[in-house]
Write a structure and sequence with these properties.
The complex is a heterodimer. Chain A is α/β, with parallel strands linked by helices. Chain A has helices spanning 2-6, 119-134, 140-144, 147-151, 161-187, and strands spanning 9-11, 16-23, 27-29, 32-39, 42-45, 50-62, 65-67, 70-78, 83-85, 88-89, 92-95, 100-102, 105-106. Chain A folds into two domains: 2-106, no CATH class; 119-187, no CATH class. In chain A, strands 1, 2, 3, 4, 5, 6, 7, 8, 9, 10, 11, 12 and 13 form a 13-stranded parallel sheet that branches. Chain B has one domain (4-92). In chain B, strands 1, 2, 3, 4, 5, 6, 7, 8, 9, 10, 11, 12 and 13 form a 13-stranded parallel sheet that branches. Classes of the chains: A alpha/beta, B mainly beta.
Chain lengths: 188, 105
């Protein structure tokens, strides 16, 4: 509600906008927008707002419904009551408990340092490291692509001591291989 | 309390329809169809066909207006287009080019 009050542009609950909408300020949608939205600031889709559009913004917060592909230069947050269908491309994508989303997420270059390494990543590393623990010598090339993430769980305490001991050895070796590969590519 | 505001830096190219009051401080091109009132503030620019209950113009409008109730052209506004409404008020200082039709059935 505080966000709603500070924003200068509001599309009210009974209003429908069809076409192209662009601007350099925050936009709160409580009504319906179809077409395209291009903003240099924040798009807030609040209940009962519905947006069916190609969206290009800095930030987006969804409490309502968004259908369409979104490109955000900073972040996309799907809140508890939010529903999104479409692809999201943004360096930060936050999906909270209760939010519904169908589509692809592209956070760009994953090698870059990110402010919040969160739960979904750890889930991925877990399944991968289990595989490496079982078959330590298998598929080194395949694991190489995931190496930056496989290194991470070594820092987090794990219940099974022998498994972590095996893992902490393999990823280090794998990481060494990657660095070599990257350097070779850059020289070309 | 007006629910819908199109801020100064916003440009809408298309159609706006609805049952809320609409305040335009930015730019709207295309069509505006409302069952309520349209307020075009001093910074507002509209190039559209307008059909509303009433229109209150302090900014700039290019296009025809059909209002069920009233059109008010305030001082310093610039309006180009035809106006059809039972009540039309044009203030001193307003500039207007177009025809007026108050004979709405």
């Amino acid at each position: 509600m505080a966000e709603t009050a500070s924003a200068s542009t509001i599309i009210g609950p009974t209003i429908k906008v069809e076409g192209k909408l662009q601007g350099e300020e925050d936009l709160v949608v409580l009504g319906r927008v179809e077409g395209s939205i291009s903003l240099t600031k924040t798009l807030i889709v609040d209940e009962p707002g519905v947006v069916k559009a190609e969206i290009s913004v800095a930030h987006m917060v969804v409490n309502g419904v968004v259908v369409g592909n979104t490109t955000a230069s900073d972040s996309v947050q799907i809140a508890e009551t939010g529903r999104v269908v479409g692809d999201i491309k943004a360096p930060r994508v936050i999906i909270v408990e209760g939010a519904r989303f169908r589509g692809a997420v592209d956070m760009g270059e994953l090698e870059a340092p990110r402010p919040s390494a969160s739960l979904p990543e750890r889930g991925v590393t877990h399944s991968i490291s289990t595989r490496t623990a079982n078959v330590p010598a298998a598929l080194p090339a395949h694991r190489a692509t995931y190496a930056p993430e496989t290194v991470r769980p070594a820092t987090t305490p794990r219940p099974s001591a022998p498994a972590s001991a095996v893992r902490s050895e393999t990823p280090v070796a794998v990481q060494g291989k990657i660095h070599k590969k990257v350097v070779v590519k850059k020289k070309h | 309390m007006s629910n819908t505001v199109v801020g100064e830096s916003i440009v809408i190219d298309g159609e706006i329809t609805g049952d809320d009051d609409l305040v335009v401080q930015g730019t709207v091109k295309g069509k505006i169809h409302l069952n309520q009132n349209l307020f075009v503030e001093a910074s507002g620019v509209i190039e559209a066909e307008i059909a509303t209950q009433s229109v209150d113009v302090s900014g700039q409008i290019t296009g025809n207006i059909t209002a069920a109730d009233k059109v008010e052209l305030k001082s310093k506004c610039r309006m180009t287009g035809d106006i059809k409404a039972p009540r039309i008020l044009i203030a001193d200082g307003a500039s207007f080019k177009g025809s007026v039709d108050m004979d709405v059935d």
